[in-house]
Predict the 3D structure of the following.
Amino acid sequence: MLGAHPAGGGVDFAVFSGVADAVDVSIFDASGAEVRHALERDDRDVWRGHVAGAADGTRYGLRVHGPWEPGAGLRCNPAKLLLDPYARLIEGGVRWDRAVYGDNDADSAPFVPRSVVSAGEFDWAGDAAPRTPLADSVIYELHVRGFTRRHPEVPEALRGTYAGLAHPAAIAHLQRLGVTAVELLPIHQFVHDAQLVARGLRNYWGYQSIGYFAPHNEYAAGDDVVAEFKAMVRALHAAGLEVVLDVVFNHTAEGDEHGPTLCFRGLDNPAYYRLADDRSRYVDDTGCGNTLDTHRPRGLQLVMDSLRYWVQEMHVDGFRFDLAASLGRATSDFDPFGGFLDAIGQDPVLSEVKLIAEPWDIGQGGYDLGNFPPGWSEWNGRYRDTVRDFWRAAPGTLADFATRLTGSSDLYGRGRRPTASINLVTVHDGFTLADLVSYDAKHNEANGEGNRDGTDDNRSWNCGVEGPTDDAGVLALRARQQRNLLATLLLSEGVPLLLAGDELGRSQGGNNNAYCQDNEISWVAWPGDGQLADFVASLCRIRREHEVFRRGRFFADGELRWLRPDGQPMHDGDWDNAEARAFAVGATDGLLLVNAWWDPLTFQLPGDGAWAVELDTAQARTGGRAERSIELAGRSLVLLSASR
């Protein structure tokens, strides 16, 4: 078993390196003094040793003696103190000194974090995973720090921490909304990039992982980081909430050939990374300088061991894989039956948890939406783009909008289910919901990159005024557009994904790439828009109460009626009409009416009975009745149910 494990009055250490000539484990005492212990190599290139007197809480690092031949892909340097890839706890962070880079003989120990032996007992107190079916799930993407950093009901010492997320006030909000799972932005130990630190910024999102077994130490309120994380999971489970981790196995914080030597690079560079034909350089399918090689045995083992650890030892309920297309690449092309995806599919532990792919990267043919195997769900970028376009009245979007609303059968109809589609309108990367209806262009000046960073393809509409305004008409339209987008999201087939703070009207001032903003730009502002939060809660309730929105299979031909506003059936010409922006869809007991026109529109209703108004986005409330017809306000959505 790799890593550090207490045994026999000391600690057993084990680390893989197929290129090392020798490996030392360095033990650090409370004063920082270092004592090195040589490890012995076994037949599988695992270096092992027992250090008497070491125990839970011992600080340590690794030093690898071996070839420094960058042209051959070999980057061993014993002057560089390395993290244990299997460390359960990491103390400290990187201080950006020349010594952390591998091309010199300066000792990096004063400037890099320490691995820490962690083997404390934890009382799970009968913890049980909620195991919410995907069809019944509503996922809520949040940042551990940003969610409670400004929460007035969370004690100040706990704000922005695992303990803060576990606080009853934070959990009460999640329960009030009716979500079923939290998806946490990266909590594996990560690094604050040198260029950000130089600009006085931080890596807020955390997509620079370096420790795949260690909870990020800056998110802990107390000293026992592992126990605090476990207690958070236990509290969320007790509230019926699942925990999904956003994991970054596509690249590491070591970057390209000019990056620091912190762990994998110094241990066995070619075993962990995909190297280019010029072995001194890295394949970069991620845009982050390197690509972890899950096609090779040790890279694959690292990822699989980490995932099983988080499920079995930390009790998490699933994973969202950042740039997951890179994990399905054996060489240059994505393979849905590649080694990593096959390994996940047959694993008795991992095949039973939620598996969510971000189905793209920047490599060749990197947009693999719809191509992941059964058992996987995918962030549906087509859903996001279509729904945004439809509600800003882009022409020619009605037919595609109907396809997204009913589960994206064009993407998943062959061998998969509607739950393969993770439906999203906003996520951490891009505009918040409030900004989506308030800005036509990004405003990322605070990032210090001349507003060049972040996408320009926002598909947003400011409703007539860029940014903040006191115009009552514009504000009312923006509020209605937010309700339209949220109602579409929660009433679509598939699995809805909400962005934390959208239900409170959170704005980032038009910043659509706030990855480096660990401040009020990114943190959720409480209490926010309580009326909008109530609206989201009502949508979650409607979704729970009506099984039609939580189907495990696609609609068959004839199960739904598609009607024009005049009550007549939709025909090919109606679907092909680029200017069509309204329709009704439903069955005998319910009807969804959609009007993306800017003017009011009267819908003729089928049948002779009365209909109850369950939802009207023009009014932000429920109630009312309709019989033969109903007028929808411009840019609004109404849900009717057959009145009994």
Summary: The CA atoms of residues 122 and 227 lie 7 Å apart. DSSP finds 15 helices and 29 strands in the chain.
